[in-house]
Amino acid sequence: NPQPMELELEKVYLPCLLVTKKRYAGYMYEHEGQAEGELDVKGVESVRRDGCPAVVKMVDKCLRLLFATGDLSAVKAYVLRQCDKLQSGRASVQDFIIASEVRLGTYASESSAPPAAQVAMRRHKCDVRDTPDLGERVPFVVVHSPNAPLARLKESARRPEELLFQNGGAKLELNAGYYILKRILPALDRLFSLIGVDVFGWYRLEMRRTLRTALDRAPTDRSYFKGTMLQYCKSEHCVLCDAQCKEVLCDSCAGTHALADFRAKTPADFRAKTPAHFRATMPADFAPGAPAALALRLRLRLLEQRHDALVRACMRCEGSHSRDVSCVSLDCPALYARLKLGRQQQTAIEHSARAERMLSLAGQSTSAFM
């Protein structure tokens, strides 16, 4: 008979989810004096590299919420909130970049290559020196194809630079449906189906899509093709309060209370940076429509301040004295924030110009009847 063996206790999981062999997650306790468990994950999407950062963050957060509180309603609220953030265009593009390994020359045909390989081959056609090494990870994003709404995945995969630095042509947009239904929800369902939770049912039955923010609703321009059907539609919401109206401003915001309403909705840091003569109460005999124009100017000023702060940070990082920042590093969060603020700044300029044009026409029509 073999000699008796002394077994060493490595760790205890409480609570835990055991998906399959080498795929599990739980709170790990390694000794008796450990007061709080440490999240330990093996083989689950939160520690895998073949997905996008959004899936990693959501799976990790959901596991922590489930193990710490045991409250499924908190998990559901978080999942729906993040899905709504993606659908309304408030999510960062950086969290949805997928990097997959590419092995050019090993595929049966060019048409059967996976999406990352398709992106790599398009890069090679543009520049023969831009060829990935064998096994190198190529980043890509999945967008709405402007020419074929029902295009296959390999036709919708694009370089992140095409989405970030799009100049003219068809306006690309992240394919929120693909990321939610093919990436996020399947990863969560593999975990939560073990405890009898239908994650797809949460999205199908209780998901309510909110309105995009005014700065993310660019005015409709018919001079180019769009990536989605919604981009052809003209917004019928006020750019200040989101109330339904036919013009750029509703009747309430075009009156004398627009500035006070806008000031009440702005964050504290904006109010602190606003000059004192702007923070002062508007006179009662102020011209109708002027507070709305001033509120739009204040919004534009806030965007300019934030964009300028990011540009200065990028200039310090580059060691450059030029405001034309040339850095295009996809790993830098400042790049995505700077480009988004730049787009919102252009939209705010257009909103302000349209509002002033509307108010001037309204003033001319009013004076004509006097």
Show the helix and strand layout:
Layout: E1 12-20, E2 23-29, E3 38-42, H1 53-69, H2 72-87, E4 98-102, H3 115-126, E5 136-142, H4 153-156, E6 157-158, H5 160-164, H6 176-192, H7 199-206, H8 258-265, H9 268-273, H10 276-279, H11 290-318, H12 333-369
Antiparallel strand pairs: 1-2, 2-3, 4-5, 5-6
Helix pairs in contact: 1-2, 1-6, 8-11, 11-12
Structure, described:
By secondary structure, the protein is mostly helical. It folds into three domains: about 120 residues, Orthogonal Bundle (Topoisomerase I, Chain A, domain 4); about 80 residues, Topoisomerase I, Chain A, domain 4 (Orthogonal Bundle), CATH 1.10.132; about 130 residues. It has twelve helices and six strands. The strands form two sheets. It has a three-stranded antiparallel beta sheet with strand order 1-2-3, covered by helices on one side. A three-stranded antiparallel beta sheet has the order 4-5-6. A hairpin with an 8-residue loop joins strand 2 and strand 3. The longest helix is centred in the C-terminal third of the chain and has 37 residues. It is globular and about 100 Å long. The C terminus is likely disordered.
Main beta sheet strand tally, sense and closure: 3 strands, antiparallel
The helix/strand class is mainly alpha
The counted number of beta strands is: 6
| Tally of separate domains | 3
Strand coverage percent: 5-15%
Distance between the termini: 112 Å
Identify the overall geometry.
Answer: globular
- Using only C-alpha atoms, the radius of gyration works out to 26 Å
Mean pLDDT, as a whole number? 82
Sketch the topology as an H/E string, one letter per element: EEEHHEHEHEHHHHHHHH
Estimated helix fraction: 40-55%
Oligomer: single chain
Low-confidence stretches: 269-285, 364-370
Give the strand order of the largest sheet, numbering strands 1, 2, ... along the chain: 1-2-3
Number of helices: 12
GO molecular function: DNA binding; DNA-directed DNA polymerase activity; nucleotide binding
Catalytic activity: DNA(n) + a 2'-deoxyribonucleoside 5'-triphosphate = DNA(n+1) + diphosphate
EC number: 2.7.7.7
Organism: Chrysotila carterae (Marine alga)
